[in-house]
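Hello again,

I reread your note about wanting to compare the complex against the isolated chains. To keep things tidy I'm splitting this into two emails, and this first one only covers the full assembly. Below are the input lines as submitted, including protein chains and any nucleic acid or small-molecule components. They are followed by the predicted structure of everything together. The single-chain runs will come separately.
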Amino acid sequence: MKITILTLFPEMYDGFINTSIIARAVKQGKVEIECVNIRDFTLDKHNHVDDTPFGGGRGMVMMCQPVLDALAHVRKANSHVILMAPSGKTFNQACARNYAQKEHIIIICGHYEGLDARIYDEVDELVSIGDYVLTGGELASMVISDAVIRLLDGVIEEESHLDESFENGLLEYPHYTKPADYKGKKVPEVLLSGHHENIRKFRLKESLRNTLKIRPDLLENREFTKEEIKFLREFAENGEFFPSNLVKIIK
Ligand code: ADE
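Full-complex prediction:
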């Protein structure tokens, strides 16, 4: 897979590309990351990439010409073009899985007050990483690239995806490592037992408990298994937090 990033600040990606799992994925040829400086495409003799907004108002708006010329330069028939914007659809794990199937993703990063809206017509989608506003799309593009690259074949162990938050519609279960007793805080006994079935049950129950407590919205349309319903009943009987919309499931 290839990821092309159109940005005014390519130097921001140095740490991202050259560190840890992403650096290894690049070295192994699982992904190629190309950063293209939008400023290299300006026709303005002062290299301006932005101008004041029509209709007045604060801030500067990135102009069509350098952005769209940069896009035309890198775009191929198989490119999927994403524009980072707080007004886009919210990125999630399902989007990451979808992008991980693509051959070429181009991510355009806006900066300043935003981009000329006519640029929107030339992209496949506007994508946001959450309901807050960053100074530019660069960090957001790294978030998306990271989430996608780790899903590519061979980048991390295949099985480690399966138990992750969101992959099975639940938040993940808690992890522990040595020592088994840290200043009196003990690792749950079952994890030391070597009993695989009990460990599986414990982890599923804890995933369910975490999701109920922290993200009950994820459970709204879930088809619960019999085993999960049994755990839900136990939570309710123990007086643990239980959202009212799930009461019908344990009746
Ligand atoms: N640019 C500024 N804020 C952003 C956000 N939340 N998501 C994506 N791009 C952005």
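For quick reference: Residues 84-86, 128-130, 132-134, 137, 140 surround adenine (CB under 6 Å).

B.
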